[in-house]
Amino acid sequence: MIEKTKKIWFDGKLVDWDKANVHILTHTLHYGLGVFEGIRCYRCSDGSSAVFRLKEHVDRLYESAKIVLIDIPFKNEDVFQAILETLRVNGLKEGYIRPIVFVGDGDMGVYVKENPIRVAIATWPWGAYLGEEGLKKGIRIKISSFTRYQVNTGMTKAKICGLYVNSILAKKEVIKAGYDEALLLDPEGYISEASGENIFIAKGGCLKTTPLTSILPGVTRNTIIKIAEDEGIKLTEQRFTRDELYSADEVFLCGTAAEITPVREVDDRVIGEGKPGPITSKLQEIFFRVVKGEEKKYKDWLAYL
Description:
Elements: E1 7-10, E2 13-16, H1 27-31, E3 34-36, E4 39-43, E5 49-52, H2 54-67, H3 76-89, E6 95-103, E7 117-124, H4 132-137, E8 139-147, H5 164-176, E9 181-185, E10 191-194, E11 198-203, E12 206-209, H6 219-230, E13 235-237, H7 242-246, E14 250-255, E15 259-266, E16 269-270, H8 278-291, E17 302-304
Parallel strand pairs: 8-9, 8-15, 12-13
Antiparallel strand pairs: 1-2, 1-7, 3-6, 4-5, 4-6, 5-17, 6-7, 9-10, 11-12, 11-14, 14-15, 15-16
């Protein structure tokens, strides 16, 4: 269960958690047209708190809205500041942030014209998405029978509420089979992404990740690419197959919720030595230093409270 906090920012006002309600005929509830973000605030080593890559997340929220023809009734900077304000009001030193933009109640049917566009921001304490044990020792994943959307079926560059039904079905399937996370293929059979994370593989000291075809352009993915470049780790953005995945030396998933989570097994094939490899461990270590404000060259990625 989510641990409740005091307030949720809702259409420009801070309201009590239990009073942040919507009508049962809220359009997005029925049809899925809405966009959202997942963002983290970290407690830094010096005792301060900072939101990681807040600008990039808010920018992506607006890009997602543009893609699906939603006009957000607040300026980008207003949402940016509202996120910081909500964290302060709730007294959170670290936690998860969920901004969501959705179509409110009014008319029903697939096409509506006058329904209000509503915006909410919730914050709450949240630990490791795939478990602390998973962060340290790695997780077991399985390729799902469900396929990631084709680029003209779902707008894969937008973080759209309704598109996550695909992820939910995939994750339900693999959890029932005893695994920790689902991996999906693209319509052509290449590795796409997990239910809520991008994927990287390492082979012979080099990294590879799925290009921006069928996948969401992850903020954490972009972070890893930048860090790898700065560390002199060779990296290519290139499609790869499931058998290439099976024979990788290292595999890890990444995302705001999952952070950098090693993968020790895919489809009952042990990856490498069955534990986090040297590249994964190095990137994970640097990543957590970055989000805690210990790497000054990445200070622009932090928005302090």
